[in-house]
User: What shape does this take?
Amino acid sequence: MLTIPAAAGASVDPGSALHAYARARLADGSGVPGGAVANYRAALALDPGSTEIARRSYAQALLSGDRVLAMRSAELLDAQGMLPRDGTLLRIGDALTRKDWPGARLLIDRMVEEGNFAFLAPILRSWISIGEGRYAAPVIGGKEQFASLAQRYLDEHLALQAIGQEDMAAALPAMRRAIALRSSDVAALRLNFASQLAAQGEKAEAMALLPDGDANFIMARADIARGKGPKGRKALLTPAQGFARLLSRLGADIASDDAGMVLGMRLSRIATFADPQGAEAHIVAARLLTAGGYPAFGAEEAGNVPVKGWYGGLAQAELVNATAEAGDRDGAIALARTLASAPGTDAERQVRLGRLLADAKDFAGAAAAFKAAQAGYDTNRVPWTLLLFEGSALEQGKRWDEARAVLERAAKLAPNEPVILNYLGYAQIERRQNVDEALALLKKASALKPQDASITDSLGWAQFVTGDVRAAVPVLERAAAGAPDDPTINEHLGDALWTAGRRYEARYAWNAAAIYAEGDVAERLAAKSKEGLKPEYAAP
Assistant: This one.
């Protein structure tokens, strides 16, 4: 076991478990998980009885993708009755990869007793039955606890299993329901279903899943048309691969809430352990690791997917995001341009490029990309979000007349979208144009979304600009209460309070705004706090 040195000046053997553990904690605290995991590995080897080392080794192994260390630390924690609940999933995945069906069933029974992931049991037991050669479809009773959670994933696995059983009558409707239910990774799901159908000789059904001309499906369609690719039983999913898909989807769903990001990342890593060759598992892991603040790991996961394979474009999109988050904006833009210029490029690729260009202050390039994203839509069916993106880029690029036309078109297509009404109204208020019409837009936006602090601020500022200070102050106070850290809102409130004669409170609001303000705004706030509100110091 680890022991603490008796005296502060005592030496520590550089080869000791304590020294390795200290290095690991230092690397961990410095945000270098790759360095941390190597030292946790060394510390665990030197002191396998330490629960603390095993616990931290387990967490870092999942984060960094070290399957061997994850399994070793899980075994030690399990022996001491301290294995986290996701550790049971790790062990289930290991049993499935080894085709230990009895062992996997015992672990699933344990998972049910533990409760956290019990709703996965019917689907996992069904995959095991395929491995055992006596298939039993998953059945989820409506009265079972968390049955609605299990239903969320059921159709995808019913479809995949039915394809493997050559039961197309069951597979096709389940497949359609799964695609309709999926809100993310739809392209990957279509590719997955298409590959399984093609392996069973269902060429027409496979092709029907992949829209013609879409960059994400061009290679797959060409391969299926030529009859290229693995066929028969060897191409169908194994229980371990089915498990990996289930865990990837669960991880992505859990991570959609910030509070679930850590667990989502861990589940996505466990999925890659169970299916190391599976593109979908690596794509999901790449996305979650990048979103969770580990873009280097995200880039590694994206790099595990062959660029020239069916899923190459989807993985490269995740690499763009990871590259940008890692600070290489130029590299991210270059890769995003390549993806956006590919034959059959879709709106998502253009929007990704547009956002990167906007972040780089290339508003002309961003507007062009957002405009290009609209190419696949009829004039009257363009999504309002694309018009908002384009209008925003044009407005920030000081092309207001063009921006206004685009934003008005968006407002016409979506007259009850508060985000559009707010942007169009506030932009005109800033320019002191069409003030009455702009105020009407902002009143409508606020009525549609009264709890939105930004929209409330826009309304209050419009009231102030139009001379209704008495009405503006309580509205701006409500906005500041909803977003106390927002420098723009606090500056607006300060200006209104000063004009209303509440000068002590005005300085308080300006000082609050100054905490997060930068550049010219910070200088303007400092001048106001010292000299009071003058025309040259007024907020724009």
User: Anything to note?
Assistant: The two ends are 65 Å apart (CA to CA). Confidence is low (pLDDT under 50) at residues 1-27. The chain is about 70% helix and 0% strand.
